[in-house]
């Protein structure tokens, strides 16, 4: 892996910190099995269903997505 500083003059500590972050992100990406998509908790349907199930009625469609 080659890293090139384009602009600025980082101290050895700053460069080591940046490299540690890059290596940690690369290790985390490598640890994820291929094909395993990371789901955002916002898109999780159980987030809405866990609060309450909408009651049938004329406005039930409005309560199917937004909890509250």
Per-chain topology:
Blueprint: H1 12-31, H2 45-49
Description:
The mean pLDDT is 76. The chain has two helices and no strands. The chain is 37% helix and 0% strand. The chain has helices at residues 12-31, 45-49. By secondary structure, the chain is mainly alpha-helical.
Keywords for this entry:
68 residues; mainly alpha; 2 helices
Shape: elongated
Order of helices and strands: HH
The proportion of strand residues reads under 5%
Largest sheet: none
Low-confidence stretches: none
Ends distance: 50 Å
Total helices: the number is 2
Beta-strand segment tally: 0
What value does the Rg take, in angstroms? 23 Å
Report helical residue fraction: 25-40%
Mean pLDDT comes to 76
Task: Give a brief outline of the structure.
By secondary structure, the protein is mainly α.
């Amino acid at each position: 892996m080659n890293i090139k500083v384009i602009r600025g003059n980082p101290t050895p500590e700053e460069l080591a910190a940046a490299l540690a972050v890059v290596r940690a992100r690369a290790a985390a990406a490598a640890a994820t099995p291929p094909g395993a998509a990371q789901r955002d908790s916002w898109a999780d349907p159980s987030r809405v269903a866990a609060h309450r199930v909408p009651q049938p009625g004329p406005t039930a469609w409005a309560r199917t997505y937004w909890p509250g």
